Amino acid sequence: MSSSLERQQASFMSSMSAASSKLAGTKRALAPPSPSPSVGSVASAVAAGNGTPRKAADRVDTPAHNIVYSQPAATGTGLNIITQVTYAIAWLRGKDEPRTYLEILGHLSGLHWSPSYQEEFVEAMRRTREIQWIPDPNLSEQTWQSGTYLHRPKVPGVRNKTQLLAYLQKKTDASCVGVKELKDGWPDCEKAINELEAEHKILVIRVKKEGSPRYVWLDDPSLFHEVDPELKIMWQKVEVPGTDTIVQRLKAASQKPASEDPRDKMTAAPKAEKKKRAQRRTGKATNTHMEHLLKDYSHMKR
């Protein structure tokens, strides 16, 4: 039994060694990998033929650095004009005198713009609320190149303390003037506001954290009276009684305290007792043959 197994094992080993020697002697030469076609080569093959790429032998690859990719056209002219008008407003804000459109274009480096683009820019400036167009008085017919331009602030004609007081005096109501609106035409107005407040000519509401002015009202310096410092010290030394004590003293004097909540009386008022519902009485019998049905059985309830 063991000898037959040994013979089978020996024959198997010899067959395996023969097969390995045959594989080692015959090596297959692998073909080199074919290069993948580039975008330019495929496009040129499709353009040259009938929509199908040419064979690898007939194809000539185009170098990657020679491929020209098309760029989108420069659009968004309107957005560019809006941006340029914004720059023009910021530049005119710091100018006290009117400026021509050539001076504005010189600041924006737009003298090389085409005439049609310049005309469109000028029309956009004239439509803007923040810019005031002043026509040329020497011309009977205005063109897009005529006239000058001036910044139109939110609070017009206020650039110093005198003009601010005059503007507040002309107001017909008691409304305030925002400091943010003042800074649109008068950027450095905070110093003048502080001086006018110290002179008691204006009333100022300030931001709590920063202390910067926020709103301005007109004030009358004749209504201001200086208080003696000793009186201020005496006033601060006076002890104010508590709220409960003040309420008790007012009630003792038959006066109604302002701090009294009327809802307290409503909660303290006693609730009205609900009236007991009267029992229903039986009506008078009119039919003698129904007396046994209309008889009162209320005394039999448990």
Automatic annotation (TrEMBL):
Signal peptide: none annotated. Residues 273-283 have a biased composition (Basic residues). Belongs to the TFIIE beta subunit family. Residues 73-158 form the TFIIE beta domain. It is found in: Nucleus. Its main location: nucleus. Keywords: DNA-binding, Nucleus, Transcription, Transcription regulation. Tetramer of two alpha and two beta chains. The keyword Transcription regulation applies. This is Transcription initiation factor IIE subunit beta. PROSITE patterns: TFIIE_BETA_C. Recruits TFIIH to the initiation complex and stimulates the RNA polymerase II C-terminal domain kinase and DNA-dependent ATPase activities of TFIIH. Both TFIIH and TFIIE are required for promoter clearance by RNA polymerase. Residues 289-302 have a biased composition (Basic and acidic residues). Transmembrane segments: none annotated. InterPro entries: TFA2_E-tether, TFA2_Winged_2, TFIIE-bsu, TFIIE_bsu_DNA-bd. Residues 23-45, 251-302 are annotated as: Disordered. It holds the Pfam family TFA2_E-tether.
